[in-house]
Each structure stands twice: as structure tokens, then as C-alpha cells.
Design brief:
Chain lengths: 178, 149
Amino acid sequence: MTDREIIRLYREGNNPERAFDHLLEKYEKRLYWHIRRILLSHEDTDDVLQNVLIKVWNGLENFRGEAQIYTWLYRIATNEALSFLKKNKDQESSLEDHAKIACSLESDEYFDGDDLQRSLQEAIALLPDKQRIVFTMRYFDRTPYKDLAKILKTSAGALKASYHHAEKKVEHYLKERY
Amino acid sequence: METLLNNPKLRENPFKVPQDYFEVRLPSELKRKIQASVRTTPCATASTTARATGQKRNLWTLVRPVLQFAACFIVLFGFGYGILSLLPHTEQNDSEESASVYVWASPQFIYNLMQEPAHEDVDVSDAEDLLEYFSARGMSYDRLALADE
């Protein structure tokens, strides 16, 4: 079912829950992994994803279709993840942050990566919030810059620069360890 | 260095989710939360309340500047009235003022004023009277002439 068909079903059909189910079926996993790569922890991701989906359910009525539904969903998910990060950011130094991330990944029963993968996640977690989002969406999902620009409401040029800086930092972090 | 980031293993997903998370846990939890949110704010009630609040807000937004202006006016008026009431003035002053105002405003006075010629010829006897008046006050004709020049 296409996005347009889902929206039409929501607006014209007698069963909006059915349209929402179709939307979930199509996007929930993608949104989950998008948020998970930013937040790392499953529990945090679960909380944020539920908030995102409730916002989507409440906002579907007012969705005008000016943007693609994919862009709209990713924007909500990204903003929610960023808000979560800001809310939970304390005054710890980057070294303490690093220790915390490394420790949390080691003890995370839902992390199945090797040392190199763990180091990559640590390096990504140490990036500034926006660079982290740009890097994960480009590196793992290979999201085109034009889609990133729509989701993050930033120019493609600025995003390329952001990705370049993030890539350099991650490379540097990995180079120190391997 | 770039070889590390180009390593295909790094692009693999190292994360897992609990069993039945997408199939059971997430949908049931989501359904529960959505139902709870609907129960606390039923659509009709919520929209009606929101609309009513919006109307109240709109009305208040319109009325507030008018009320503020009226309040300022009342305060200024009261302040001015207080100052005027503190100034000393007697009933006699009031009656004199009102009498002079009455004379100036009377139609008869205005009529007389209009009947007067614009330039009257100066009577010589009046001029002599004036000279006498000034000389009595210590002002000579010469000083008056100099002052004229």
C-alpha cells in the first residue's frame, strides 16, 4: 500500500485504526532503527518510539500531505530523539560520557557487535547531536542528502560538511584504537 | 584509515530487539497508550473544550487592550482631579471667574465689540491727558519720544 493510499484510507475510510496499522507495518521498524542508532539503548528507543507513534496518530488528521509521509515521520522521530538526548544530557565530561557509553554497550544484552562495532558506536555517541544524526543516516541507511535536507530542514551543503566533520572524528577515534 | 570505515561489517546492525517486540509488545503497549489518551481526552469533548478556550482567549485578547486603555484613562483622570482638588481656590475666585467668562461670552459684548471702529482718531484732549499722566509718574515728553524712536 502506498503512502497516498494509506492517507486516503485514513481520511475517507470508516476505520482510521486500519490505516494507522498499515502505516505502522510500513514504517515502525525503520523508525525504530533510526532512533536506536541515535540513542543506542533499547529501553530509551522504545519510550521514544511510542511517543513518536502517538504523535503520528494524533497528527495524522492534520497531515496536509505537503511533505512526503516518510519525511514527516522521520522528522518527528529525529526531533523526539534529539529532545530525549537534550533532556538526558547532564554536565559530565566527554571522558565520563565515553566510559558510560562503553559500559552501557558492554552490558547491553541487546547489543551483539564485536569490539570494532562497539568502538564505532562509541565514536558515534561522542559526536555532537546533529552530526550523530547525519552520520548514522548517511553511513548506515545511505539516506540521500536531499532527503536529509528535507528531514533536518538544513541545506544539503551544510549536511555534507557536517558528515565530513563527523567522518573525520570517527576515523580519528577508530585510528587511535586499531 | 578509510579502510576501517569501509569495512562492510561496520555497516551491519549490531543491535537486537527483545523477542516479539514488533509483533506483540510494541503494538499492545501502543494500543494501551492510545486508548488511555483517547479516554482522558475524548475527541468531541477535547475539540469543544479547545474551541471554547480559543474563543475565550480570542475575546480576552480583544477586550484586554480596551480595558487597559480605560484603566489608564481612569487613573489619569483621578490623578488630575486629585491635584486640582488640592489646589487652593475660593468661592469668590470662582464667582469672579465665572462672571468674567459670562461677560466675555455674552452676545451683547460681542455685538459691541463688532460695532467699534477699527481705528479711532486720537482726541487731542486725550493726548494731553496722557502726557499729564506720564509726567506725573516722572516720565518726560523727551524720554517718551526717545523710547518711541
